Amino acid sequence: MCYKTGQIYLLPTGARAGAGVMVPAARRRQYGALSRLGDPPVDDLDLIIDLHADGPRQGPGGADETRLALTLAGLPGRTDLRIADVGCGTGASTLVLAEALDATIVAVDFVPEFLARLADAAASHGVADRVTPLRASMRALPLPAASCDVIWSEGAIYNMGFEAGVAAWRQFLKPQGVLAVTELTWLTAERPAALQAHWAREYPEVDTAAGKMAVLERHGFSPVGYFPLPAHCWLDNYYRPMQQRFDGYLDRHGHSDAARALVQAERSEIALYERYRDYVGYGFYVARKVA
Ligand SMILES: C[S@@+](CC[C@H](N)C(=O)[O-])C[C@H]1O[C@@H](n2cnc3c(N)ncnc32)[C@H](O)[C@@H]1O
Fold it and tell me: In this structure, how many other beta carbons lie within 10 angstroms of the beta carbon of residue 2?
């Protein structure tokens, strides 16, 4: 498995890449499901992918919430949309977009196993002709400038940081193009000190919705919609299915120290969310590029 920065690899629809995953080497402060992708030991990356590949999604979210966001964005009824779904994982949001909209979608991720599953799912949903998996880094999207009507990204922009992602992806949007992303957000003005300390350490960019919207405005976007993801997007759609996979996963990996550590990290994250879900969650941000 290679370990390089800024490389771009293309994966044809349906292809199963046999080579290892290319991981940007830059140090990243992260959280959540794939949080330990920052400078991972190679074995850990395989373990992380194996834990998440079978899930219905790789981060919190839901089909109804994806549809709500695309309604807030004013996309239903528009024709011939060009969309990039960045950090698409196995395609939970990609499939909703493909089925709801008249659009062609480039589904971008750097994990070939996820893209292969997405390609299979697109085929079985009858939308393969409108979904193109693209193996690439979100830090260096190989897209033409001003080519997208929409950039969509659920649970993924944190990998490069919200502000860096907003700033970097703007160039790929047409004038008036839509940016729709979910991002870790404080749901209240104040919060328990232990929670504050945890996220200050793990993801210092966590902020209130007002703070995130100020970032969007600073980078040439006009916010047009926001809502916090409901708890079922975390618990029913993401954490509970993962919990059900823990036993099989540990058996598959012979209860190795690394596999047990990964499961323990997920259990801790779940406990943290269950305890503090009134204070922190994902916000869904929809914004329009100001020309
Ligand atoms: C928490 S998962 C969310 C996946 C999907 N959007 C969903 O909601 O189920 C984050 C995704 O970002 C991808 N990712 C992380 N860093 C990336 C990078 N630098 N370039 C491209 N994809 C990346 C991961 O492989 C993973 O699929």
Answer: 11
